[in-house]
Every structure is written in C-alpha cells, then in structure tokens.
Amino acid sequence: MIKLFVIDDHYLIGAGLMGEFDGTCDDLVVMGFAQDLITATEKLKSTETDVIILDLFIKLTDPVANIRHLKKTFPKTPIVILTYDDSIKWQCRMFAEGAHAYLHKSDPLESMRDVICQVAAGRIVLPHAVARYSQSKMNEIVQPVLLPDEKEILNEMAMGNTLKDIASKRLRTASAIEKTLKRVKNRFKLSTTYELMAYMSRVGEI
C-alpha cells in the first residue's frame, strides 16, 4: 500500500483524491490532507507518508519556497506536483527544486496512479515536454518565475493601468498590489518597478 499526503488549498481536490484512492480497489491510499503548508507540516510529522502530493499554486504562497520547505523538512519523502498549469518553465523549475513528478489535475486517474507508483518506487518521472527541453534553455530553470497573479498585474501595468485601477479590479488595496510588486522585485533582485517591467519585457513575460 502506497500512503499519500495531499496539500491543496481547494478542499474538493483533496476530498476527490481521498475518494478515488481509498485503498479498497487500489494500492494507493490518502493518509492525510491539508489546505496550507503550516498545517501540512504539523500533520506530516505524525503521518506515515510515502509520497507528498503538492498543489503548485497554494494561495498567497511561493511555489519554490513551498517545495524547498518540504524538501528540507521531509528530505526522504518524494514530492509530486499537482496543478492545472502547463507552463514548461514551472515544470522545469519544480524538477530543478527536487520534484519527482508533475501531474495535471485533469490527467486520467489511471495515469496519475501509474506515475505515483513509479515515484514511490524511487523513480523521477519527467513529462515529455521537459524531457525534450533543449539544453540551451535548461539554465532558465534556475531563474525566478512569475506566479499567475503577478504576471497578470504586470501585464495590466504594461497596458497603462495604475495601481489604484488594478487594485479596484481585483478587489484589493493599492498597498496589497505594491507588496506583490515588492515581492517580485526582491525575487528577481531588482530595485525599481521600472527595472522589473523592462526585464520582464526583455524575457517575454509581459
């Protein structure tokens, strides 16, 4: 029996996997579920787990920081990323950070099961897109990557929207948008929003 622990901020995803992998008709069973990393860390300390299933985009958190935390805290437990995101950059970045597999939430159940079983057996399962990624671009995987929300904000700024406009559209405060921009600038080691916009334009992110 392969014991799984699911971390996903959408309860229905966790409940769905618990229902599908219940241990009765399969050799997989979900031993625990958490909707945030803090709760997951506490539960994992007392839960027997063979494979961690980690949602790529947990609300208001950094995917890279999340997987680094889990790798540091539970170094012997392999991690499978589960997401709706097909970005080659995010796939490569997660494997660069130590992920063992990358699953799409719409993948057939049997396909998920096969990949998880391979991971539990100690294998790293590379998606075809990552396996074909040209060597000349592989150094990109160590570069910072934008979260979907961050990319949308920068694109809106590139179209001439003010922070107030963006905040109003997203039902957030201008201060919250500024904090998001500061977080991105720190991640890319840039000092000003102008430098950030110029850099993102050069690399084709906006």
What does this structure look like?
With 206 residues, the chain is an alpha/beta fold. The protein has 2 domains: 2-138, Response regulator (Rossmann fold, 3-Layer(aba) Sandwich); 146-202, Arc Repressor Mutant, subunit A (Orthogonal Bundle), CATH 1.10.10. The chain has helices spanning 11-20, 37-44, 63-73, 88-96, 109-120, 128-131, 148-158, 163-169, 174-188, 193-202, and strands at 2-7, 28-34, 51-55, 79-83, 101-104. The chain has a 5-stranded parallel sheet, with helices on both faces. The protein is elongated, with a radius of gyration of 18 Å.
Secondary structure layout plus pairing:
Elements: E1 2-7, H1 11-20, E2 28-34, H2 37-44, E3 51-55, H3 63-73, E4 79-83, H4 88-96, E5 101-104, H5 109-120, H6 128-131, H7 148-158, H8 163-169, H9 174-188, H10 193-202
Parallel strand pairs: 1-2, 1-3, 3-4, 4-5
Helix pairs in contact: 8-9
